[in-house]
TrEMBL record:
Matches recorded under InterPro entries: ConA-like_dom_sf (IPR013320), EGF (IPR000742), Laminin_G (IPR001791), Neurexin-related_CASP (IPR050372)
Pfam families: Laminin_G_2
Repeat listed as a keyword: yes
Keyword Repeat listed: yes
Name used for this protein in its record: Protein eyes shut
Cysteine pairs bridged by disulfides in the record: C102-C129, C156-C165, C176-C193, C195-C204
Record domain Laminin G: where: 1-129, 210-398
Domain EGF-like, residue spans: 130-166, 167-205
Keywords: Calcium, Disulfide bond, EGF-like domain, Glycoprotein, Repeat, Signal
Biological processes, Gene Ontology terms: developmental growth
Length: 398
């Protein structure tokens, strides 16, 4: 499989192969070769339907029956490759050559790549295209960069301050405590503090401990599994207790949550019922809609366990088996390569659940979670020792 964007005789060309055939899209217009004009390029695919957009002019290749998942296990290259042998002969029209020109603002699946000296994994013979200390997006939040003898300065919009316009005026005098995040509230000319795990209070200055995690809707915990490298990923398991009065919410997402091709196992609520979704490589969804289990939002504690045995999935709710299904009898993908990452309640601040999960789940979780166990571990996860924000002590009350 491959996906390649290249410049061919002045035209932009997109080629991709999902395992059965190579699709080729090419722009109608040429790019300017004077080196002074920036072009906006958007390209990609939804299933096996491709699209290519150059400066607002769109070309779409309608989908035809066939494979619909891009299964690549290589590095992502920009401008060239470390060895021409890595380029599939069908990925380019002529002999592969490296790109000469400038590239900026690369966004892959809604995440911008940092084109700096230190962030990429590797590279060679790449210089600064702007040629000045201003570079690109040195000034944040629509600030204007000006070159000066001593370096540069930023002229900031009204509500931003700092040497690179990085700080909101509403957070300039904030009292948020240790490790807390200041979140500006422009409409009220104020701010709120997002508390790091283990802290609470208006200014996140009160130390707390808990074994029951309380999520309030803009909360999340990100747990990194220290035993991931030793796991048998063809036989995974997760169990936990939860309580809520909401009909929608993401309870747990085992997976990186970075792009659509990442493996994941997710548990949440949809229309008041328990919903489990699993992707072992083909984005296969397993919906659980059982009318007799439509009372998960009754503010009582519920115990859920999901067991994956290769492609066979078992789901237990309150110790009763409610689903047993083989999601892929062909056994094409059998391992849950979730990267050792588990999210509880939601994702990092600013990342919306409905966007990250491609609308599989609509909202962040509001409620409580406790007694999380991975695989056949003898000990529960210590949620307090993970990373997270806006999670509170749920030890008391119902």
């Amino acid at each position: 499989d491959f996906l390649c964007i290249s410049l061919v005789n002045g035209f932009i060309q997109l080629r991709y192969n999902l395992g059965d055939k190579t699709v080729i899209l090419q722009t109608f217009q040429k790019v300017h070769a004077n080196g002074n004009t920036w072009h906006s390029l958007k390209a990609g695919r939804a299933g096996n339907e491709g699209y290519l957009d150059l400066d607002g002019i769109n070309i779409t290749q309608k989908a035809s029956p066939g494979m619909n998942v891009l299964d690549t296990h290589t590095d992502f290259f920009v401008g060239g490759v470390s060895s021409l042998n890595l380029v599939n002969s069908m990925a380019v029209e002529n002999e592969p050559t490296s790109f000469t020109g400038c590239v900026r603002e690369i966004v892959i699946n809604n995440r911008e790549l940092k084109l700096t000296v230190t962030d990429p994994k590797d590279g060679a013979n790449v210089g600064d295209c702007d040629g000045t200390v201003c570079g690109y997006t040195v000034c944040k939040n629509n600030g204007t960069c000006q070159v000066e003898n001593s370096g540069f300065s930023c002229s900031c919009p009204q509500e931003w301050i700092g040497s690179t316009c990085e700080q909101s005026i509403h957070c300039s005098q904030n009292r948020c405590g240790s490790q807390a995040l200041c979140i500006p509230q422009p409409t009220s000319f104020s701010y709120i503090c997002a508390c790091a795990l283990g802290w609470s209070g208006k200014y996140c200055d009160s130390k707390i401990e808990f074994f029951i995690a309380k999520f309030v809707g803009n909360s999340y915990i990100k747990y990194t599994d220290p035993y991931y490298g030793k796991r048998d990923l063809q036989h995974s398991r997760i169990s936990l207790n939860f309580t809520t009065n909401q009909t929608e919410g993401l309870i747990v997402w085992m997976g990186k949550g970075e792009d659509e091709d990442n493996d994941f196992l997710a548990i949440g609520l949809a229309n008041g019922t328990l919903k489990v979704v699993i992707n072992l490589g083909e984005r296969i969804s397993v919906p659980l809609i059982h009318s007799k289990y439509s009372t998960c939002c009754d503010e009582r504690w519920h115990f859920v366990t999901v067991v994956q045995n290769e492609t066979c999935i078992k789901v237990y709710l309150d110790e009763e088996l409610i689903l047993f299904e083989d999601i892929d009898p062909q056994r094409k993908y059998t391992a849950l390569n979730y990267g050792g990452i588990c999210y509880f309640g939601g994702f990092e601040i600013g990342r919306k659940v409905n966007i990250v999960t491609y609308r599989l789940f609509q909202k962040e979780f509001v409620g409580k979670i406790k007694d999380v166990v991975l695989f056949q571990d003898s000990k529960k996860i210590q949620l307090m020792k993970a990373e997270g924000y806006n999670v509170y002590n749920g030890n008391y009350g119902n």
